[in-house]
Design brief:
By secondary structure, this protein is an alpha/beta fold. 34% of the residues lie in helices and 25% in strands.
Amino acid sequence: MVCDFHQNLVKRLFLPFLDLKNRTNVLSCLNILERTQWLKVKDLERLRQKRLRSLIKFSYENVPYYRRVFKKSGIRPEDIKTLDDLRKLPVLTKSDVRKNFNDLIARNYPKSKVTLNSTSGTTGEPLNFYLTKEQLSMDAAAGYRVTRWYGFDVGYKHALIWALPSGSSIKGKIVNFLMRQKILNSFKMSQGKIRKFAYELIKFKPDVLRGYGSAIYFFAQFIKKEEIKVNPKIVITTGDGLMGYERQQIREIFECDVFDFYASREISAIAAECPTHQGYHVTAENLALEIVKDGEPVADGETGIVLITNFNNYAMPFIRYCIGDLAKSSGEKCSCGRNLPLIESIEGRMSDVLVNANGTYTASPSAHYVFKGLKIRQYQIIQEDYEQITIKIVKEKGFSERDIQSILQRTREYLGPFKVNLEFVNSILQEKSGKRRVIISRVPFKFIQS
């Protein structure tokens, strides 16, 4: 990794200043994560078990909710010795967090050392929670570690397409300038603003372009149509999934590699692709990630629901937290040499899955095959009950009755025996978070009972 003068200023001056001001320790955490990613499997597991036991003991002694959970389950902290022992505890759902918010807060943790945050509410139900300085530091460090995998050290030039509900304050603009970051607000992506942002990036020459997958794809399509050349060195997508053809188009339009980063507001850095693209490396030093179906771990290559235990948030511990995502397990070892465990793929959100009356499911990536090769610009599938779906379609020039028949036939083939209502629209609105969802399911999820 080569650092220029300005990058060195960020790394040696601006970021240490922000650490001091915010009472965080991002750089020291980054040094720790750089070392632990190369630990032998047994040493990494020993570290994780130590962190898990410490969290469990603290939660039992200081968090009323977990004291009740342990008593109700008939177990004590010393019964949780390994990561496999987590299965002795029940799943923590978003509903549990809302109902037990105050009892999930550690009684002995100073309020001055925590930050109140919330999810973007993609599913229509935002969730409030507290984060500690330790978690914020480790999560930021995990993000920097990932960009180092791609050859870009702290202080790299960074362009971001992201949701900014209240706009950028003067303080935020100063921080963005010092940290060499340009941002396009995905809430208000008018053609004029997108065009202006594109020309700013031509001058800025970012190392990394990052944002919601759907927003990056939209931006790529725009600059292709406008014949504007924007050439970041890599693209990092996050927040929502991309179809294979969308990822390929992003790669071709920007003429660079594309990596996916799995994260969330309440957990932050969860897993990311390394340059080999052999799966997603879990940020194992910071969390335990389970993939389960019917309450049991899935087999390698099988899809299940994601449960996460965060090792860093002692103010409001999330243990076996059902984040609402689906992922496919992997038993492979990455050729990059890191011993961080792998996820084969992120399959989408539980609310991004169609479910029929028999409990058969279809994750959003499969929907692509219904529309592949047809004269369609955008689509979205909405499920209100088990028997029928509504498909919203933005037509391309040349769309015909033959395309309609293909959609109906392929829906039966790939998605199931649904009654289909076609709705032709001029555009498909983004969620309040700035994301675009392929599938929106409003029926009870029957795939997994946790």
